[in-house]
Specification:
Number of strands: 32
Shape: globular
Strand content: 35-45%
Strand order of the largest sheet: 1-32-31-30
Distance between the termini: 60 Å
Radius of gyration: 23 Å
Structural class: mainly beta
Largest sheet: 4 strands, antiparallel
Length: 391
Amino acid sequence: MNGKKIFLLFLAIIVAGVLLASSTWRQWNDNQKTLLERTGPILPIAEFNHGAMVDDVEFSPSNQDIIASVGDDNNIKIWNTNNPSTLTKTLHDNEETLVSLDFLNNGELLLCKGLHRKMILCDASSWERIILPQEQYCWDAEISPSADYLANVYSQRLELWDIRNPNEITEITEITEIHHTKYANSMRCADFSPNGKWLAIGFENGDIKFWDLEQKQFIKTLSVPHESHEHLKDIIFSPDGRWIAAAEHSSLSLWDVQQSRRVKLLEDTYIGFLRDVKFSPDGRYIGIKTQDKMNRYTIWSLPEVQIYHEGSGRYVTDLAFSPDGKILAISDAGEVTLLSIENLTPIALLQGKGFLGGAMELSFSQDGSMLAGGGYGGVLRLWDIGKLNER
């Protein structure tokens, strides 16, 4: 009898502890929301009418008054934040579905990539288009960070072009790799290292090989188990060059390039191309937005490769790290939430007018004082977050 009483008492203590912890968490969460509600949301200082769903937005690193947006209308639009009502330039492509933007060579060039890997490269001073040598049905295409080289990936070959002089683009080399295994282990994707010295080439079976641009030869291979058939789709270097994220058919892996170590971050989920995977600029975190029914996002800490933070229960559309790595921005249709990376507490809510006041895509300015969010209703919003420390 005494043993039964002790067991029941022990069980009651556990239940009480769980209820107390749950109540404390709910109270903390409600207090955070209340705090944000008391301070009120930050409203945009400017709104730009792109005219179609905005798929990507980027600040120029050399002039943060300049913002580029690309939308479902296949228009690339250039804006000056000092004059939101007037477009600086519009670029259009009738042959490709345009999806992503990136400024290269310290803002001297603007690159827009299409869904089928076609690339549009523009001079950011004149906004004149630079014609690139690309065939149809390219698996992937990448330009080095300093815009020295273009890599075109086809099934059984890779073309490497010198594009430093737009008037004299020349082919440097052609890499061919054919493996006589059970199936042709064709090339699928590529990415340049941040310092521009290496070109990583991803193969269908999950292997990644590194081509040294100076030595003009393969110098390293990251190999998956021979029995594994990952159907690799996309790879991306971290800003410090130590890590490579690899999107496979239904999983996401992270490679430590130095130690040739591979960790599977996600399985049985859909990532697609790596637009939903973000490394923090300081290399301490990797954030992943999954495209599944859970609507969740996960932040992993590096180099431990451990889950640091998870969020779900809302339709997360994008996440972005501030340039100093201290703030995480998370967007949905209604609002953008800024979190402190250090203690994972909300700092501020950003909202535009109306029910769809959030964003589909996010981008911080180079100095972190501005956040641009584009998406619903074709509206591109600009928030001033430089005064957050004063609140």
